[in-house]
Amino acid sequence: MLRCHVVAARIPGATGFGPGVLLSVCFRGVPRRTQVMPEERSLTWNEELVWPLDMCPLSATDTLGLRLRRGDCPLPMGDLGATTVSLDQLVANPNLPMAVRDIPLLDYRERPTGCTVTLRCHHDPHGAAGDVPIVTPGHGQVVPEVAVTPAERKEDFQVRVRVVRARRLRGNDIKAVVRVRIGRQKFRSRRRSGNNPYFNEVFCQDFRLTPEQLVALPIHIQVLHSPNICTKAVIGTFELDIGTVYSAPGRSLSGKWLSLRPPQHLQGRSQGLLQVSLAVRRAGERAPLPPICDEIVLEILRGSCQTKAIGRATLRLSQISRDPDELEEGTPGFFPSFGPSFLPFYGPRPDAARDSGPVYRGRLLLELCTHAGTVPRCQRDAVAAVDAERAQSRPPRCQLGLCGVFYSGTAVPGGPEGLSLELGIGATAAATAPVPPAFDGNFYHHLPWFGDKPVVAVTSQWEDTGHRWDSLNLLRALCQRLEGNLAELRGQRGDTARDVGTKLLRELGQDCEAALRCLEEQPALTVLDQQLRGCRRLLLRRLRAEAGAGDRHGDTLATAARGWLRRAAALAVEVTPKNPKIHKPKPRRAELGAVPVAALTPLSPCPRVPVSPQPQAGVPDVQLWLLRGHLRVASARVAATDVLYSPRCPGACGRFCGRIVTLFLGCGHRPPQVRVRLWLGRVTESGELSRLLAGRLRFYSETYEEQPRLWGKWGSRRLRGLPAFCGGPARAAPPRDELRPPRGWRWDGPWSVERPRRLRAEGSAVPDELYENQSREPGGDWASTATTDTAGVAVPPKEEVACPQGWRVTCDWHVDTEGTEDEDGWQYAVGTEDGSAPAAWHGEGQRCHTRRRRRWVRIRHRDSDSDSGAQERDTDTRGTLDPEELWEDEPWQPECFWGCTFRPPVPAGPRCRRRRWQRGLVPAEPAAVAPLFLLQGAPVGTGGTGPGRFQLRCYIFQALDLAPGSSSTSIDATAQVSFVSRSQSTRAVRGAQEPRWEQTLLFPRVPLFGDPRSVREEPPAVLVEVWDRRGQGPALFLGRCVCSPRVWLDAALREPPPLQPRALRGPRGAAGELLAAFELLQEPEDGSSVPLSPPPLSKDGFGIPPELRPRLQRVALEVLAWGLRGLRGAVREPRLELRWGEQSLWTPPIRDMATNPNFPSSALLLTLAVPEDERLVPPIRLRLWDRAGPERRRLLGQARVGDLGRYRCLPPRPEPVLGSGDGCHTVVSMPEELEPLSVPVPSSPCSRWWSRFLAGAQDLLGRLRNKWAEEQEEEEEEYEGEEQRDWWSKFYASMEDKNPKSLRGNNGDRLRIYSSELEAVPEFEGLQDFCHSFPLCQPGRAPAPVGTFKGLFCIYPVPEEAGAAPAPRCFQRLPPRQPQPCLVRVYIVRAFELSPRDVTGLSDPYVRVALGKKTLGQRDQYVPNTLEPVFGRMFELSATIPLEKDLRVTILDRDKVPPDQEIGSTTIDLENRLLAPCRAHCGLPTRYRAAGPGCWRDQLCPSRALELLAGTRGLPPPRYSRGGTALSLGGHRFELCHFERGHPPMPHSGSPRERLALHVLNLCGLVPEHLETRGLRSHRQPGLEQGKLQMWVDIFPASLGPPGPPVNIDPRKAEGYELRCVVWNVRDTDLGDINLLGQRMSDIYVCGWLDGLPEQRQRTDIHYRSLDGSGAFNWRFVFPFEFLAAEKLCAIRRKEHAWSLDETLLKVPPKLILQVWDNDKLKADDLLGILELELMRLPRPARSARLCRGSPGELPWLSRAWLSPSRFSRCRLSRCSPLNLFRSRRARGWWPCTLQEEEGGQRLSGKLELSLELLPAREAEERPVGKGREEPNQHPTLPEPRRPKSSFLWLRSPLSLVRHGVPRRYRLCLGLGLLVFLLLLLLRSFVPLAAAPQRPGVPVQPPQLPGVPAQPPVSP
User: Fold this and answer.
1) How far apart are CA 1532 and CA 844, in angstroms?
2) Average pLDDT over residues 1562-1573
């Protein structure tokens, strides 16, 4: 499937009003268009257009035709431009999206209209599921997908939240509801009861935003007590942003548990757990972007709203932290940390071009720390004074000097205005003197610097962190040298490999030693410094030890070296790609469009490891700007660490320090190239800088003398505002005699006038140009006005312009028509009142235009007779015209009012002139530092040493697969080569898409300044452009490439360079390849020619030397031309032309496409010679022609077949034709295509004995396993014993997430469930083994598909001898060519992850199947209210293949009122499945059954299918034993016992012969019985997958007889069950009430229900006034329900609302919820305890209430440390494992009840004695019971409970009063007290009182009792 994401468009001339515009995109003749948008300058669509590939893979010749037009205007009036985009790069990298920005649109004359389009393409090769290219001319740029999408581009996204379940929610008697807010959209789940509810609901929300806007949106999840929205009802919340999900692997978080927090205190205690799955889907993108969480972005904002960013900085976590997995084993990782250190910020510059990139905007002192633990509540606070003082104690500052020497500047923009280069670091910068660009006579401009090269130098103050710079560069040097040695080691063998290995180990040890010395001396100023230093030291010590061992050689050493390189790169603060390509430097994306130096260096053979900058360097990047006046045109950035100088050692210096490098400035269609030498270091260490510059520095002071022209004469009289002397533009200066040298410097010589030096290359062409101007009054006639130059200054007419002396005119004056002009070359504009230049010129005239102009051009060449030997001459090559020739020999420069914006309307010529005076400067005294840093601001240049002379040889051989730039199919190609300041072109090859020039271009005597060794290391780049120069019209650009020549300083050592293919990039992407070679030879200093024979001469110049020509090989090309598919329009008799190289083949025409679209004869043969190197082989061209008349043909379409290596094979061997002719439906003789069958049993005696031993052992293990399985079945009573062995049993047993309990339950019978389409399975190769599909497209600029060619190619070598016998053909036995009537059975099993279409968040999906004109599927057969429907339907259709080959399956949503909405669809090519050799038309089961469920359904029995397969693969028929238990095939023997050992026999197993044949077929790599998962796509949101569909297709050709019975996949119905729960007793419950006596009591009752069935809620009677928390009930609950055994879920069907028409099927886990309540009369009942029992994982009950605990984890004996499974047997542990009530059927005992506490924990609140019994519905009907204690009260019989009397009569009984009135806790104390009292009384009664003495006469007085009045004494 091809997905084109239309992003945006730009219309420069948009007015802001009008009908609106749209973009039409055409792919293979199928147009798609976007919505109509208002016409604006910048439009944003972000729409996805999708084309199904119909099993036809994307080809490199496929293109997209784009046309931008107005919505209501017919063509061509509303046409805004059209173009074509090639998709070959998408074919080359199908896993990587291709983004194309700013594609220029062309009009019907192939001229740019100014409009551009931006889009992104994605390729899914199966319809479901490198180096960065060089910037191309035009405005189109192919960019990698890792680039961040700009903020103004919106895209389609879908966010999905699946709420699965909750656990341990706080609260009691919860009716939980989950509320989800995605962005601003709110969703709510159904209400669920309990503390552990199960939801399983999906919420989707679509967005049309930019990625930056999307990732900032929140996902807010709340769990509520009830649907009421109030603060007190919220249990807990959780919030995250979409960016967290977006950055996760696969953009999804699956099955994550969220900790819910209270909304008032987000840092408080957890309120429970919620399991969710989150996913983000992005339209049109498969590969995930780099993780957003890997970057920390900091911005400096300004403005009141703080919305505009001044600068931005990015810290990558991969640079400031390390994962232990990435490091050396045993090396600890560390958390992210940074600083305190300065971090540079970069941002856009207002005066710079839009695409010039960011510049330095400032630094920020930053410290970043990571702490593990709880996040503090304070998220932002002021920095403490102590921390601020510590952070500011940074390293001492030093003065750094930056120097740049510019050697050349090429491909710069042309024009009369001078160009300069500015080099700076931070806020300091210096620029070169402006120089007007010089034309090289072809197409390019350069800066004419000659021998004196400009030098700029600046100094600035920065922190001295040299320890960080040195360690980084040393590690980088280690990696680079190790990678270079590793690359050298790969291609060596023998003694040479040993020598290279010894060198590798020696240099690795030296580099480790140097880096270790640096690390030992490195101060650790920050935490990051400490961590990196520790890890690096440990790594380097281990590498040094391993390198010193020296016990590895060859492949072992290479493997170890790759590991060393990976480990070293992980600690070099760098990001290394998985497969780095070291032969070409690969640009990386920098933030805000910066262009790093890694992308700007030319191609180099030396390997490099890409390294990210040091995060704590503190020094900003070096910035290089190209200036045109005050405008900054383009820029490049170089990391400061790359050019830093270190006196420690050469390895500690930056990789570009003191070296000449080539920088490409900007990312435009033709970026300027600058060769510059950069040096950055401490000023105090710059003493050796002059030596590195390889030249003599010349310092001078300059001033300009200016003269005006008055009355036709030049004089020194001043004009107002014009000084006599100036130091620059509009800057006055004193006369030169008054200037004084700076302090410490002295003059060197007198003042001298500098003559303007201009380059003159021998034989180069120079254009002279001027403009003819005309004006008119509105509505009047045109009248001629003055002739002007490019700047608008008046010049003489062209007839008066004479050719300068020493020049000759080669092309006289002619009108230029290559721009945006009309047919006569005029450009039109609206005149201005002040006579200034118009704002814009237009190519079409209108009545409002009052001015027009046209450009006249002539070409002149230097007369070779004047002075042919000179190469540099003071001549005028800029084309500046002077009628008076006043300064032809004078050093004056014409100017016109410097610094003044006013220009006269028709000036008579230059009004002023100036000349430059110079005077040298030298230091007064020698200094220890470089003099250029002592004199900043003064012009500096290099000189004294002449340039080296080199000869460039460009061997241009051929171009492959050039893409035509227009509607014409032929190309007149020529190659334009540019090198430094020179350029040449090849001859034009007429009418060929693979033009072969075979031409050598020589560039002799090319001056290159600098050390020749630096030229060898960094040679200048060679620019090659291919143009189409058809007819007399303008040339059309096709493509370009940048190449690096191979440099030879000694021609005697020269080796011929090999031809290599180099990718061409055009305006629309990849434009083909160029076969070329380049070498640069140094010429002798004496001026003699290179001691090398010149290339051979040809009629057009120099030819290609014989040693460079590719070696040829004679091959045969066999073509299987099968047929044509999908031809659109009326076609009479199509035929195909195949052209390869210079030869072609023609297929016979197809007489009637309607009855048979196959060719009458299929096999074709072509023999020719092609290069042996696969890269140099031209592609195969296909052209489809149709008969348009008696003798006329019409070209319908064409295609290109590249990558021919996949079609190469060995010559076919002569083989006898095996088998009979009938049934040959999938037979193609492909040599070496399929390997022989694997051998399960060896044939040697020893191996045979060993195999028998293993077979016996395997048999014994199988018996033990079966015996153990039988014991398990007897122990657990297999609950699925009576389950039917239908297809669904096999399906659920094969599910990856469904782990079957035993193999015996299903006898190992499985089917393969693929997670993708069958075409996407790698082993089946897209089901195109027999025939490949090649799309055919119309020729032209916007090719549209016209059909598909089905065929195959075989390429194999043939003997060179003329008399050799021809090899046999490859394609000997073919399927029948006639269309085959077939029976097609489509099995639709289920769909999942469907997108909702109803307002309820659900859908009513149903299936519709279409094949040809037949459509099956009724809308009344829908599954209501679900997103995961189980269809279980089979559709049977008859079709004639290939006339009806595209099967379309659509899932629709049934609505109340038609039409129904489409959810998604998928398309299957039935022809590919029928003809694929992997036998995809009917899958092979794993077991053979002759009858019953799963019986054999194919037309051919397994033995017959095996016989045909053996004949197809060139093997003799299989030979069976007498009983059919063994067979021999291909020299191998197979026995049935080897396959069925350990499996008991199945019913209806069939004969052994067929079973064995099926087992052997399953070893042959054929398609097994399967279930494929296909993605669903919709035209509403084509870029987003709308769900998945699981299905399979069976195809039965009618010629093979009737098929077997279809598979019954009717959905399983839920089985009825009845759960009987008897509540016997309750113990130790909470007492919630207080009686009249102040005692705590409760009126206890129990209620219960099944989860999801609250309407079945039942309750017991009430046990009144329980004083001890105990209660007796003897009450039975009866819960009928339906259960899906395979899914282990309860099926609940009910209507959601009263107005719902259909029932909704809910699936929840079986769970019994019991609650213990305290009954109250005047208030709500109190909850005393909750018990939730999962029937599939039932906790084992306790035998008594005393042993019942809160949970198994709270048991003390289970929490001891000494407990381990090894101390207990399996039987002992099984007693603690949970029960499955569906297996055990019964359980009785005590279970604990729990209750939530206020602190959040749970406590034991009671115990329940229960009896649980689970019965099937049929058994429950046979054994009926009543609810409660109702009749029938049986199974078991429930008696009345024994409860204490619950009345107040017990007050009359003293003992009852004591019993019920005294609390239990005081009864013991009271009883002991009474016992003591009674003992005292008894003691008192048995021990008499002692007798007291009595006095005489005194009466005895009895003792007085208390409260009794005293009695008077009794007298005696």
Assistant:
1) 81
2) 91
Q: Which residue has the tokens 């989800």?
A: 180
CB 1157 within 8 Å of CB 1123 = yes
Residue 1509: partners with Cβ closer than 8 Å, 6 or more residues away: 1479, 1561, 1564, 1566
Evaluate whether 486 touches 561 at the Cβ level (below 8 Å): yes
Condensed to tens digits (0 to 9), the pLDDT of residues 1353-1363 reads: 999 888 877 66
pLDDT tens digit sequence for 689-739: 877 777 778 888 888 887 777 776 777 665 555 566 666 554 667 788 888
- Under 8 Å CB-to-CB from 400, ≥6 apart: which residues? 425, 459, 460, 461, 462, 619, 680, 681, 682, 683
Q: How far apart are CA 1314 and CA 1305, in angstroms?
A: 23
Alpha helices in 373-457 (DSSP H): 385-392
Whether the link from the prior residue into 1459 is cis, omega within 30° of 0, is yes
Distances (CA, A) of 1545 to 1031, 1487, 1524, 1527, 1761: 81, 11, 16, 20, 48
Contacts of 1471 (CB under 8 A, 6+ apart): 1125, 1350, 1441, 1442, 1445
The pLDDT tens digits for 1463-1487 are 999 999 998 888 888 889 999 998 8
Q: Where are the beta strands (DSSP E) in 37-154?
A: 42-51, 63-70, 79-86, 98-106, 112-123, 141-143
The partner residues of 282 in beta bridges, in order of sequence, read 157
pLDDT band at 1243 (very low <50, low <70, confident <90, very high): very low
DSSP per-residue letters across 1679-1730: EEEEEETTTTEEEEEE-SSTT-SSPEEEEE--EEEEEEEE--SSSPPEEEEE
Closest by Cα among 1267, 1341, 1252 to 1304: 1267
Q: What would the mean pLDDT of 1791-1797 be, rounded to a whole number?
A: 87
Nearest to 873 by CA among 805, 779, 792: 805
CA within 13 Å, CB half, 1134: 30
Rounded to 5°, the CA angle 1495-1498-1499 comes to 125
Q: How far apart are CA 1037 and CA 111, in angstroms?
A: 12
Q: Do residues 637 and 623 lie in contact, with contact meaning Cβ atoms separated by under 8 Å?
A: yes
Question: What does the mean pLDDT of the chain come to?
Answer: 77
Q: How far is CA 1824 from CA 1088, 1284, 1624, 1649, 1817, in A?
A: 117, 26, 20, 19, 10
Q: Which residues sit opposite 894 in a β-bridge?
A: 913
DSSP-based three-state secondary structure for 558: helix
| Of 814, 783, 784, the residue nearest 798 (C-alpha) | 814
Cβ–Cβ < 8 Å for 346, 329:
no
* Confidence class for position 1268, pLDDT limits 50, 70, 90: low
Distance CA 627, CA 625 (A): 6
Convert 1021-1053 to b/e letters by CB count within 10 Å (16 or more is b).
bbbbbbbbbbeeebbbbbbbbbbbbbbbeeeee
Q: Model-level pTM? A: 0.62
Residues 1465, 1449: contact at Cβ < 8 Å? yes
pLDDT of residue 1272 exceeding 80: no
* Residue listed under structure tokens 């599954």: 1423
In the chain, the amino acid numbered 1494 is G
Question: How would you write 1036-1059 as a 3-class SS string?
Answer: EEEEEEEECCEEECCHHHCCCCCC
Structural contact between residues 458 and 423, judged by C-beta atoms closer than 8 angstroms: yes
Q: Is the peptide bond prior to 1429 cis by the omega test (within 30 degrees of 0)? A: no
β-partners of residue 186 are: 181
Q: Answer whether 8's CB lies under 8 Å from 37's CB.
A: no
For residue 1063, give the H/E element and its range.
strand 1060-1066
- Sign of the CA dihedral with 169 first, then 171, 173, and 175 last: negative
For residues 1649-1654, average pLDDT: 88
Please check whether residue 1484 is in contact with residue 1568, taking contact to mean a CB–CB distance below 8 angstroms. yes
The predicted pLDDT at position 1017 comes to 81
